[in-house]
């Protein structure tokens, strides 16, 4: 007699996972949770870095900030002292600064007196706005009136310095500008600056911008070349000496471009990472420096 199985439709269809399948499922769940946690940590870290950078910028532009030298603003107290002495010795004068920070902005006050003109060239609209707010908070109407801010876009990153220098050495237009700098055919000249800046006869020029802190950051090649070209043009036209200061010469780009276009013969003082050059009328007619170009190994 054949007997039939009872309860065939109840729980007979359910199957328990094998230990291997259970382990695989647990690993998948934990991997997904770990990935989600990593995403949350990364986004939080990025947001925190951006917020921290924003707070550092706001702190640097606080009232009275950055005057005596700090890690935030870059110039040490001794470098600030040298820079202030250079400007004070020529004040009231025509001062052009590539870069903008609280320390550099303070030079506008040093360059005081009838006929004094101070202009800043920056690639940061935010810094320019912060500088205007600082001057407004100080209530220094005479200081604000003597400081002008010009924005520029630097085309080349610091990592492009050597190809640009090799190209400049092969380009006759880069050896020494003729006529006004704004008509220069050299790719290093900042010809997009206003005529107000490029046609002026400057007494003191300072290069502490753009950042140039990494290979992807805007480099100071064009700023140094343009400052040197403007200094040579002013010295030749007025028969006088022009002071040029370059900061961060501990970095390779700033050091080599300063040697190339401001010349070792013109170096008159140095303090920390700040070099002070004095460009005079005369010199070779077809080169910036009387000595040959420095060999880059």
TrEMBL record:
InterPro entries: IRX15/GXM/AGM. Pfam families: IRX15_IRX15L_GXM (PF21729). It comes from the Eukaryota. It is a single-pass membrane protein. One of its GO terms (biological process) is xylan biosynthetic process. It is found in: Golgi apparatus membrane. GO terms for cellular component: Golgi membrane. The keyword Transmembrane applies. Keywords: Membrane, Transmembrane, Transmembrane helix. Its main location: Golgi. PANTHER family: OS11G0490100 PROTEIN. This is Polysaccharide biosynthesis domain-containing protein. It comes from Zizania palustris. The lineage of its organism: Eukaryota, Viridiplantae, Streptophyta, Embryophyta, Tracheophyta.
């Amino acid at each position: 007699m054949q007997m039939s199985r009872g309860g065939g439709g109840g729980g007979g269809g359910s199957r328990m996972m094998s230990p291997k399948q259970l382990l695989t499922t647990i690993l998948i769940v934990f991997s997904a949770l770990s990935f989600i946690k990593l995403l949350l940590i990364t986004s939080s870290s990025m947001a925190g870095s951006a917020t921290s950078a924003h707070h550092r910028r706001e702190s640097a532009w606080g009232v009275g900030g950055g005057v005596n030298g700090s890690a935030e603003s870059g110039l040490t107290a001794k470098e600030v002292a040298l820079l202030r002495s250079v400007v004070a010795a020529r004040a009231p004068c025509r001062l052009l600064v590539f870069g903008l920070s609280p320390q550099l902005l303070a030079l506008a006050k040093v360059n005081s007196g009838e006929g004094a003109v101070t202009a800043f060239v920056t690639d940061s609209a935010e810094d320019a706005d912060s500088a205007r707010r600082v001057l407004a908070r100080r209530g220094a109407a005479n200081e604000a009136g003597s400081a002008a801010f010009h924005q520029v876009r630097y085309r080349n990153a610091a990592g492009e310095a050597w190809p640009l220098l090799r190209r400049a050495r092969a380009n006759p237009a880069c050896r020494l500008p003729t006529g006004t700098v704004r008509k220069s055919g050299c790719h290093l000249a900042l010809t997009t600056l206003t005529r107000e800046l490029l046609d002026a006869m400057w007494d003191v020029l300072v290069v502490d911008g753009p950042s140039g802190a990494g290979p992807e950051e805007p480099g100071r090649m064009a700023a140094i070349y343009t400052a040197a070209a403007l200094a040579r043009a002013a010295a030749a036209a007025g028969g006088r000496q022009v002071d040029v200061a370059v900061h961060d010469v501990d970095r390779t780009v700033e050091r080599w471009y300063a040697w190339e276009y401001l010349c070792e013969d013109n170096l008159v003082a140095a303090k920390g990472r700040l070099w002070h050059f004095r460009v005079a009328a005369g010199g070779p007619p077809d080169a910036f420096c009387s000595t040959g170009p420095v060999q880059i190994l």
